[in-house]
Structure formats: C-alpha cells, structure tokens
Amino acid sequence: MAHVLAVANQKGGVAKTTSVSSLGAALSELGRRVLLVDLDPQACLTFSLGLDPDTLELSVHDVLLGRLSAGIVITRTSDGMDLLPATIELAGCEAVLLSRTGREHALRLALAEVIDAYDFVLIDCPPSLGVLTINGLTAADEVVVPLQCETLSHRGVGQLLDTVHDVQRLTNPRLGVRGVLPTLFDGRTAHCRAVLADVSARYDIAVLAPPIARSVRFAEAPGTGRSILSTARRSKGAEAYRAHARAIAEVSGQAAPHSGPAVVAVEPAHLEPGTAEVEPVEVETVVAVPLEAVALEAVALEPVRVEPVPIGADRARV
Description:
Layout: E1 3-7, H1 16-29, E2 34-38, H2 44-48, H3 60-64, H4 70-73, E3 75-76, E4 82-84, H5 90-98, H6 106-111, E5 120-124, H7 131-139, E6 142-148, H8 151-170, E7 176-183, H9 190-203, H10 216-220, H11 228-231, H12 236-250, E8 263-265, E9 287-289, H13 291-300, H14 313-316
Parallel strand pairs: 1-5, 1-6, 2-4, 2-5, 6-7
Antiparallel strand pairs: 3-4, 8-9
Helix pairs in contact: 1-12, 9-13
C-alpha cells in the first residue's frame, strides 16, 4: 500500500505546491510509483505540471463528489508522476461536502481503489483549514509543513498543529507529523535562523534538513510545465529536494524517523555585526546541527536583529 504524505500550511505562498511537485519528481527518479493529488481550487499544481485547468473536463472535484472513480481522472505528467488534477470547480466542492455524512473521508475512500498501484501519494492541500485540508489530513499517513522562515508563517504552525491533533483524535489516529520543511530560506539573515530555532523549541517538532534555499529557478519551472528537477537539475534546490525524497523513501510506511526535534542552521560566515536584511540569494553552505547549537547561535545573534516582530507564546497558537 502507498505511503500517503500531505503537504499542508494554511498560509499561502510557502512553497506547498513546489514541494509536492519537486518531491514527487525526486521520488519518481528513485524508481518509485508516485501519485500527486491537487486539492487546491487554484489548481497551481495542475498548471505547474503542464495541464491547463481551464480546459480540463474531469478533475478531483468529480472524484470527491462520487461522480467518477479516481482511475478515470488520473493522468500522467511529463516528469513521470501521475496526477489527480484540480480545476476551479473544486471551490464549490467544499460547500457540497459540508452537507454530507462522513465528508472528512471522501478523499480517503476515493483513493482506496487506486492506492495499491503506487508507492507514494503526495497531497497538495489548499491554504486553509477547511474541509478539503481535513480530507487531505484524514487520508494521509504523515503531514509535512512547509515553512517560510518569517514571523507570519511561523504563527500558522500552531494553528495547523491544533487541526492535526483534532484529526488524530477524530478521523485519523494514525496521522503523524513528519516535520517542518524550511522553504524560501536565506541563511545569511539572523531572523531566518531565529524563526527555525523558535519553531522547534516552541512546538517540539522536527525541522527537516536541508532547508530549501530561495532561488529564481523555482519561479521559472512552472512556466515550462515541469518541476525544477527537470528544468534545473543541478541547482541547489533540486538537490535539496532529492535529499528529502531519499529520506522519505527510506522510511516508507513508517512513522517519522525523528526521536526528538531536529533543527537546521546555516553557517553565518556572511553575516557581520550591524548588517541589515539583504536581498535573498541562493545559500552556498547548508549544514545540519543539533538543536542546542542553533538555539545558542540564535541567542548570540539577538543584538544584530533588525527589530523583527516578536513571536510571543500568546500569539503562536490561536
């Protein structure tokens, strides 16, 4: 049976879609059979993989409402993964599901007939905590939380984890949290490193290494209908997603392999006292270090922060 991984964060613009397409392509490179599920009415994953959502007649909308089986709607992409595509019609699906009994299980039941044909299923959840995201979490074995390393994205982690706990209690007790995936990462800034250290300490959650460095290559890839593993194969971002795919493949069907929270940090060689935030570029050196080392580094860099918005315990969880 496939290992099902949901990629979720109710904040938009944190690279959920990029992570799903890149991890899917990387797992496909490893010879795994991969199905991607686009649960976002914006259909960004569908568009990013070369399909035009405006011209599709069949989509995951029809599958969730029980009109069609998943096998009829699934299509093959240029990067080797299969895709259950989305269209704007999915925006109305949530309202219809609200009136149905067992609405949280619609996706899990729809995937049941095809799940044995795959090694991995990756679900791109919408930027909300509504019925569609609940469906993704209910169908998943694990959830990955992409985190843009900034204060506003940090706030959403607590809210998402509250939803995950509700799902574990009510609809999917087997759901595990694989960890936070740092995206759009610029290791030269003290704020990025401080946010990661605080997330790990505050929520006792793993921070997955290596972080995904900010790069224009990610913005260019969707225009070609391919993932970054095809358009910029040797870029740092592509190699980072390959590293995560190898880690996921090694623990297929198992709980997250972390015995405790792990944190990533970047060598601060380029940061000098008094340096202000700078325009992000690709990070040259990324290393994984224990939580204690990062926490100390974040404290040491406190005097050079440029007055970031404070991350208070009373604001972390709503």
